[in-house]
Amino acid sequence: MASSLSSKSFLKASRTDGGSGLGFHVSDLAKLSSPTLHIPSRRTTPRKLEVQAVGSTYGTQFRVTTFGESHGGGVGCVIDGCPPRIPLSEADIQVDLDRRRPGQSRITTPRKETDTCKIYSGVAEGLTNGCPIMVKVPNTDQRGHDYSEMSLAYRPSHADATYDFKYGVRSVQGGGRSSARETIGRVAAGAVAKKILKKFSGTEIFAYVSQAHKVVLPEGLVDHETLTLDQIESNIVRCPDPEYAEKMIAAIDAVRVRGDSVGGVVTCIARNVPRGLGSPVFDKLEAELAKAALSLPATKGFEIGSGFAGTFLAGSEHNDEFYTDEHGRIRTRTNRSGGIQGGISNGEIISMRIAFKPTSTIGRRQNTVTRDKHETELIARGRHDPCVVPRAVPMVEAMVALVLVDQLMAQYAQCELFPINTDLQEPLELPMLEAAGLSI
């Protein structure tokens, strides 16, 4: 569902001369019984080569393709399937791009980019028009010479070696598509998705830093019912608790001055998510969220609800018991399932955590091998984040938004074409929920 794979073969040859595409005519098969088999020595009609690209597209109904590399001309996205008549401008997208951009503080990469976006299509007179929306951001602060050593040897724990293993060639400067700069397209598309979710169903998505290296924000210290964007953006590490924010900043500063880096955890919540999103078996909502989150650079772990800690509980302790609230709405007394049961959203707050690894070391010697397979030492240079998690916050929000808007459109298409069963189902749309007297 979340793949850009086609049912067509990766390489396909087509002929217009009655041939099979395999180098001979079907009529040639009759010659197999003769003593001499004639195989044409050259082709009279060239094959038409079709390459089905994979890996850069997410979504089915709301379909997003990102493009561009760290040191290319620019990066961005194409959004296909966006509903028409939604007010949209560059300013709507720029807010989240500014949260993601480099050079925000001393604990982020010093690369200086304004990350100013431009919409090239899909918007007419301030409204989406149902056509593909193209958003592009130019690259303006490249330093290709910083990567001269990396053209000869591989950075440990980066994509340098594996890109060579897969493609036999790679973009050295900035890591190419493996760079976090690729996420600009995701964040731009996520800003559009968040606007649709908020306008249609009142859904809000907030992410924040809950761990930086060994500094862990205690569970329950942040109220997910009342959490606001202002709380998250009140400090440079994007931790909504001021005391722990200072501890996290100190931990990042300690490794930053040594040219080292640390990892951390981003917690993300989604409030007012309509019930019923997700599908049984392979397209469960948590499976889609996990894929989306783990597709971000430097991610190494994903948890939903109680996550791995839930394994320490018995079923009687972990199960979320049901009750009926004052509106006659079925709810759960606890939310250890993280707002998703059986792969389908149940109306509670969806909560998840994504772990990000340490990424780079600058000016420090590390053992590695060269591209021609000789062991050596590498001193990496360039500009990198000493901790990626503060800038990862809007990236996580964007990926969660892309999943939810795609699932919302799928749910509407399948289950709202005819009148719903009001004894068991709820309408998806925010005004209909309010008219029914239901809290969100």
Provide a brief overview of the structure.
By secondary structure, this protein is α+β, with helices and mostly antiparallel strands. The chain has two domains: 1-54, no CATH class; 57-415, Chorismate synthase, AroC fold (4-Layer Sandwich).
Description:
- With 440 residues, this protein is of the alpha+beta class.
- It has two domains: 1-54, no CATH class; 57-415, Chorismate synthase AroC (Chorismate synthase, AroC fold).
- It is built from nine helices and 20 strands.
- A five-stranded antiparallel beta sheet has the order 3-4-5-9-6, covered by helices on one side.
- A hairpin with a 5-residue loop joins strand 4 and strand 5.
- Helix 1 (90-100) packs across helix 8 (389-415).
- The protein is globular.
- Mean pLDDT is 85; it is low at 1-40.
CATH topological fold name of the largest domain: Chorismate synthase, AroC fold
Structural class: alpha+beta
Largest sheet: 5 strands, antiparallel
In total, how many beta strands? 20
Q: Percent of residues in beta strands?
A: 15-25%
Estimated radius of gyration:
25 Å
Q: Order of helices and strands, N to C?
A: EEEEEHEEEEHHEEHHEHEHEEEEEEEHH
Task: Give the spatial strand order of the biggest sheet.
Answer: 3-4-5-9-6
Low-confidence stretches: 1-40
Overall outline: globular
| Number of helices in the DSSP assignment | 9
Judging by the overall fold, what is the CATH architecture of the largest domain?
4-Layer Sandwich
Helical residue percent band: 10-25%
Question: pLDDT average, as an integer?
Answer: 85
CATH superfamily of the largest domain: Chorismate synthase AroC
CATH class designation of the largest domain: Alpha Beta
> What number of structural domains do the residues give?
2
